[in-house]
Write a structure and sequence with these properties.
single chain; alpha+beta; Multidrug-efflux Transporter Regulator, Chain: A, Domain 2; MerR-type_HTH_dom; MerR_fam
């Protein structure tokens, strides 16, 4: 598949507010208070980055935990002056770090159709966009997960229809969200909630380490359990198929003249 590496994402203020689940008014207010840095300017348009998004999400988390905007402003000011900057910004960086290490690709509609061996219609594109796997970008398509695209193409090459691949991907997304929710619920209920509100600053190094380790731990558990589950399903669901194939082979051999 041909493609080129995508530059870091940038957002207009309305896009940033939507992703951070806040309002444009709040973004401007936080910026006026110095809680988030000003955007880069492209002409008259302000462009925000993933760092701005991470800072907004951190502000929301701290507000939910009982910090006032004044408290948050003082903490941010202390960070920027170097007071506990390693611990506090380390926590912010851990929250901001993308857990998906894949590099996005930009491909054409023809490239996409070539990969799947058929024309990908508008309805199918809308479904895949709901999964946040593809995004239309002018006359190009931004592929957010090349690995999932390759997996889907391999299934289609093996004989699975594109609608079936998309439908199962939608169902799997629901299952995966439940698994992720279980992991985060476990951390919240067993580690974060007992700390009380607001969370003591002294706990930030431990929380930073926890956030950093959560992804590989979750991947280890899910990979191990998924492998075991697939083995069980193959034995339970496909053993009859293998028996039929063996029986058919034996019948063919028995019918041949000796």
């Amino acid at each position: 598949m041909s493609g080129e590496q995508i530059a870091p994402r940038t957002y207009r203020i309305d896009e940033l507010a939507a992703l951070a689940e806040t309002t444009v008014r709040n973004v401007r207010a936080y910026q006026d208070r110095g809680l988030i840095p000003p955007p880069q300017r492209l002409g008259r348009v302000g462009l925000y980055s993933d760092e701005h998004l991470a800072r907004l999400r951190l502000i929301s988390t701290m507000l939910d935990r009982g910090y006032s905007l004044s408290n948050i402003s003082e903490l941010f000011e202390a960070w920027e002056q170097g007071h506990n900057i390693g611990e506090l910004l380390g926590f912010e960086a851990a929250l901001a770090a993308p857990w998906n290490s894949e590099v996005e690709l930009s491909i054409s509609m023809q490239d996409l159709s070539d990969r799947f061996g058929e024309i990908v219609d508008e309805t199918m594109l809308e479904q895949v966009q709901e999964l946040d796997l593809l995004e239309l970008d002018g006359d190009q398509i931004r592929v957010k997960s090349p690995r999932l695209l390759e997996a889907g193409a391999a299934l289609v090459a093996a004989g699975v229809t594109v609608p079936a691949v998309v439908g199962h991907a939608l169902a799997l997304r629901t299952d995966i969200e439940r698994i992720a929710e279980r992991f985060v619920d476990l951390v919240e209920s067993e580690i974060i909630d007992p700390l009380g509100e607001p969370i003591p600053a002294a706990e930030l190094p431990r929380l930073t380490e926890l956030v950093t380790k959560l992804r590989p731990l979750a991947e280890q558990v899910v990979n191990a359990e998924l492998g075991r589950a697939i083995d069980r399903q193959i034995r339970a669901r496909l053993s009859d198929t293998m028996d039929r194939i063996a029986s058919q082979s034996a019948e063919v051999e028995g019918s041949q003249p000796g």
